[in-house]
Each structure stands twice: as structure tokens, then as C-alpha cells.
Amino acid sequence: MVELVARSSRVIEARLQKSSVRAISGSMVSYQGQVQFKSAGFGGGAGVLAGLKQKATGESLTLMECTGDGVVQFAVNAQYVTVLPLNNETMQVESRQILALAGNLNTNVQFAGVGGMSGGQGLFTTTVSGTGQVALLSAGGPLIHLEVNPNLPLVVDPDAFVAAKGQLQQSFVTDVSWRSAVGQGGGEAFSLRWQGQGVVSIQPAER
């Protein structure tokens, strides 16, 4: 059994009892007890195929596995940390925002749709599914959770998007107007539009 607990707003603590937790490689900042560390490969599944998929899609997630009895603290660049529970659910998440995974959770990379932009950003997304806890990073402050319902779709900047869960459908919206208004008229601007029923989490800063 393992439990993820917020040690502070920027440090997460995994409490191990003859159990294991996966976290982003290099994110361990301290630990106590009998804990072993090893590479857990890519987050998009297992084996060479998972590695090729990660490389092809640009969704990068390199994990380590921490096993034993003890307490391990994780942090990345003093970013804020939020722990979210999953109960037999699937979450779409920006791969670089994942800090740790605890419980019976699987990760994968899925096609997210055609965005119509030249850079290809957002065409693929990482998913986390199952039952357990997910620790997510955010820059500029704690995560902001925005509810979406059928009567009120939500549009977010892809550079602020962190995660989404629920019965949600994602689409791309080409919206030059707001970027032009802030002096970023160059290139092909787009936003992520979410509709349905669920929660979208964003960070109060752009990547």
C-alpha cells in the first residue's frame, strides 16, 4: 500500500509499506527507510513499442520506480504539486505535468485529434487510467479546477492545460483573435475546447 501526501505546496511525499510508487526520473529530493530505485521505462506502456510511440508522438514521460518501506519526497523545479484521486477513471494529462503515480494505474498515449496547426502540439495526449492517486505539477501557483457542463463548454490555452477527466470531448478551435489582441498574431493560433461533463485543470502560467 502506498499513499501520496502533500508535504508542502511544492513537495509530495510517498509513504511506502512494502509497496512501490512511480515518479518522474530525477524527481526524488530525499528519502528515509529501506527504499530501492530503478528505471520504470516509458509512461506510454512497456517495451520497445512504447518507446517508439513516445518518440513518434513527442509525449515524453520517463519514470522511475521506488520500492520498499519508507518515505520518499518528490519535487521538480519548485513547481506546485496537487494530488488527484482516480477511481476506475481515465484522465487526459499533459505528460510533462505528471510527477508521481500511485496505485493500480496505467499510462498510455492516444491520438487526440487533428489540430490544424503546423507545430503538431496537442495532436497526441497522455492518459492515466485505473484506481489510485496522481500527483501533478503546475507553474505559477496551484492547479485551478474548472467544471464543464453540457450548457457551458470551456476553451483553454493549450500552454495552460494540465489535465481533464470526466465525460468530456476535446476539439481544437482556431482562434486568432485573442492572440492578435495580445500581440501574438504570428503563426497559427489554436485553443482546446472541452464540452460534456467533467473537470479541466489548468495552471496559472503558460509553458
From TrEMBL:
Looking up InterPro entries in the UniProt record yields: AIM24 (IPR002838), AIM24_sf (IPR036983), Trp_RNA-bd_attenuator-like_dom (IPR016031)
Q: Which Gene3D superfamilies match?
A: Mitochondrial biogenesis AIM24
**Pfam families attached to this UniProt entry:** AIM24 (PF01987)
Report the protein name in the record.
Answer: Uncharacterized protein (AIM24 family)
